[in-house]
Amino acid sequence: MPTVLLSVKQAAERLNEHPDTTRARLRAGELKGTRFSKRGAWKVTEAAVEHLIKRSTK
User: Fold this and answer.
1) Considering its fold, how many domains does the chain have in total?
2) How far, in Å, CA of 3 to CA of 18, rounded?
3) Which residues make Cβ contacts (< 8 Å) with residue 51, sequence separation at least 6?
4) Are 8 and 23 in contact (CB under 8 A)?
5) Whether the Cβ atoms of residue 45 and residue 10 lie closer than 8 Å to each other
6) For residue range 35-57, what is the model confidence (pLDDT) as tens digits?
7) What is the pTM for the complete model shown?
8) Which residues constitute the domain of residue 19?
């Protein structure tokens, strides 16, 4: 299955939270993502979002 990359907005929608909260999770390392440049946008894999959802529902 191909890796699906999500924007912060898309990840936030799946996590049912504000995009600023998702960015804070990314900066804190709570959610794994990649930043493509110093001022660039974050990209998050669909698998990382699903992992966070599963981890937070336990």
Assistant:
1) 1
2) 24
3) 32
4) yes
5) no
6) 988 788 999 999 999 999 998 88
7) 0.87
8) 5-56
pLDDT tens digits, one per residue of 7-19: 999 999 999 999 9
Structure-token pair, residue 38: 């110093």
With beta carbons less than 8 A apart as the criterion, state whether 44 and 31 touch: yes
Say if CB 12 and CB 19 are below 8 A apart: yes
Report whether 4 contacts 46 (CB < 8 A). yes
- Which of left, alpha, beta for 27 (phi over 0: left; psi -120 to 50: alpha)? alpha
Euclidean distance between CA atoms 32 and 26, whole angstroms: 6
Distance set, CA 13 to CA 16, 26, 38 (Å): 5, 15, 24
